[in-house]
């Protein structure tokens, strides 16, 4: 693209210089392996590849944390292939977060034509007729944590005994994605894997690869429970990268109303595609990916629209592989994707990446940008700010992306909703003993006691047995603290997608608009007991938003500390209840509200962890000075929204992972209270991080509110796209007063 064309997309905030590679001579290795590397054009190694190889050869566990496209996969492939060539009985297990990535890596390994190395993917798509032969012959198994959970570990003593007995290398690719609920589940699966391998007399080495994050060593050790060595001196080359930030223009300065990020994303994406620039646009959700694709297709016209496609989880395997192949071959010029393509699936050479809004972490921004300009080729990286406070904060402070130390990935093994089901699965694999605490951490004993008390486990001879006839691993969904999901079927009975059961009342209520591959469907029926939703095709004219009544009950207070002016900060265990009561239908073209409709759905309840801030009781009226209760509730509500909006920058999560409630008089605290809680049963560490960094979070939030040019509140400061109360009531001025009061900057009670 010309400089003028690039400048029309936004403000260039940086041009990142290219970096030369640090290449070293490879070590002496098996001749067949050296030949295969030569066929790849690898005659020398990057310095980090050699360091990782030498550490693994010395018997160490290694995590490699270098940039995207730095050849990290060779760090585990070379020692695994070498072991297989030394002895055909030696085995290796490669774990990828998705089936698509495993298939992509299988094709790369097969191209090496290594005699003595027999790779195979083993997942739910593997034909049953082939599985026995693969178990017998393959010495490199590529799979995902889901299949390891339900397929390999439960059958370790019957179908997989030889494999686990000879297991030498375990590789975990894209480990930076293993955070929150998914990471906590995978940590439990890896602990079960260690336990099973040791039951068979094996002591495999772990090799983890990760994008650049702040705590790679801590992450590896929490995931596996083992000591690790860190390899993070990147020896790979990189091309010049031009970084452009774009802010949607203001439509109404007083209201702070900007053009939609969806419209802006479609504009930038279609402009790049129209100029022949091979582009991926990343969206934050399935719905936004579908909408950006639809808007871009309308802008491009029918001829070029055939050369773009949406891509997201929820598509069938055949659909995803078709899109990947068309992008790799050049048939497609562009794809609008969720983070499903953030991973290392090979889709060929790309020129530009457009990030449509904050994807949940600064690390993810860099990971997405790294999908373009691989090797030494130049690339364009575009960040389009959304309307919310965090997007606007990053737009105003690009150094927080360019210069900020990338966040830490966090997970927990202390969530009984996650650990409990895995202990049942582990007991099914082999009876549990006291010594198994070494695998599952100090929360092990308490959770086991609860499982015995509930008769899920039976104690006999000092060991805990799982005596039911089923396989408990099948009840575990690794990507949710709640294992259940609702299947979405069209009028012909074909399943076209799925939604977590706890999200179904919000996303699949009768009358809801459901998007799939750019097509709109209306939900005709939601059967929660049967976990089914029936939809029908409709014109893509409307979208829907629900109204949710929320209640939070404090179950146990674990910590607290004083803030200023009698305000207090608390953290502990809470129970939340959400009741979807209404939904409104909004016209896509002009955001005009069409109508509001009642709903009659059961409440959704779960226990989690949360922080809450209590203010002193409202002061009694003095003369003519009386509290404005609506204004006061709006102040609390706006402060809650603003803090939730910025918390993802501290906790490495998505805004949708956090829930909140503001109330002028809570029935338990008997005070004005603001709750901020983890949006997952049991909690995953988000609110705990908020508690630990609360003063900094509150100060930065206050800065956003003070600097925002709007008068009464806008999406860039206090309005939330996730608000179940449709952003009512909100008081921007009141939220400033609340934050200043709890930080001790003023002593006058808010709203007085």
What does this structure look like?
With 752 residues, the protein is an alpha/beta fold. The chain folds into 5 domains: 3-14 and 238-402, P-loop containing nucleotide triphosphate hydrolases (Rossmann fold, 3-Layer(aba) Sandwich); 21-231, 3-Layer(aba) Sandwich (Rossmann fold); 416-475; 485-540, no CATH class; 547-743, no CATH class. It is built from 25 helices and 31 strands. Strands 1-11-18-17-14-16-15 form a 7-stranded mixed β-sheet, with helices on both faces. It has a 7-stranded parallel β-sheet with strand order 6-7-5-8-9-4-10, with helices on both faces. Strand 21 (485-489) and strand 22 (495-500) form a beta hairpin. Helix 3 packs across helix 4 (74-86) and helix 21 crosses helix 25 (732-743). The longest helix has 20 residues, at 180-199. The protein is globular, with a radius of gyration of 27 Å. The mean pLDDT is 90.
